[in-house]
Amino acid sequence: MRLLQSQTPRPLDLLAIGALGHVAAGCSAFDVKGNVEVWRVESGERPRAYSPEGDKVSSAAFSDDGQELLIAGLYDIDIVNLITGGVRAVPTIDYGNSLFDRSPDGDQLLVTEFDLKIMSIQLLSFWIMLSDRSYQRLWTDGPHEWRQFRTPAVGPSAKRVAVSVREGRDHPRQLIQIRDGGTGKVLHDIPHDAADPVQQLVFTADGTKLLARFLDHTIKVFDVATGQPAGELVHPRRSFVTGLAVHPNGKAIATSRNDGTVWFWDPTTFRPLTTFDWKLGKLVSVAFATDGSIAAAGTEDGQVVVWDVDL
Questions:
Q1: Among 39, 29, 33, 22, which residue's Cα sits nearest to residue 303?
Q2: What is the pTM of this model?
Q3: pLDDT tens across 22-64, in order?
Q4: Is 158 helix (H, G, I), strand (E, B) or coil?
Q5: Does an H or E element contain 89, and which?
Q6: Cα dist. 157→71, 121, 178, 182 in Å?
Q7: What is the DSSP string of 239-298?
Q8: Which residues lie closer than 8 Å to 66 by C-beta, 6 or more apart?
């Protein structure tokens, strides 16, 4: 077990582990000062930190080879080269304040945006990587008024994507949409309680199930082919689930909780496999490395615990 310390105490709810042994962590809470910090896992050295324009970070992920870090800020999605330190932006982001998720191979991005001046204007778009490592839009849904897109998720091979949607103004309804990755066509609408919004969507490693972490302590499972309920990760007691990750080889599902524990779950039976508790206080995120060899969890006060995974 290794412990990494941020220079700024803050909830590190954005967490990613790259293929070159780097860990990136940041905070998505608005008005909380700080940036995205990158550590080398083996040495604990913090070679780089990045502050996007506007000091707002909403998403972060490594490229498949670990050489680049994608950061969604207030205005752009920046691509940081971890070898040279150079920064370039994904072109033609219309509105900003983006959230994104990338495919496991890094070649596709599902991006949500909303207008910073007219916050009811929302946009959803799907991007593919070109040979020069730039990104180009494949399809767009919007702009829409009073339709909010959140929690984007891209499945294995990007054949399916998912997003949570809030529609309407006075009496909004909320649903999860499963879409065709190539065309953006809505395949399934999954309504849910508007008082319990989705916080995170993650596909299982084989792409057959979609995991939805809600604001309360539940994680529900849906069949991607039908959109029907397929199970639930039942956490004992009333501790809130704060993070969700799937092992890249499909061996386990990980959840972090505000009681300071990480739980590993069987991806078939959805029953607990094991728990970890380092007595570090509230945990707000969890992630696996791209090869599944290590995992990490972020704390509420700016620490990242990293440990070897043996499944």
A1: 39
A2: 0.92
A3: 999 999 986 777 689 999 988 888 777 888 766 688 899 998 8
A4: helix
A5: strand 87-89
A6: 22, 30, 15, 10
A7: PPEEEEEE-TTSS-EEEEETTSEEEEE-TTT--EEEEEE-S-S-EEEEEE-TTSSEEEEE
A8: 18, 19, 20, 21, 22, 82, 290
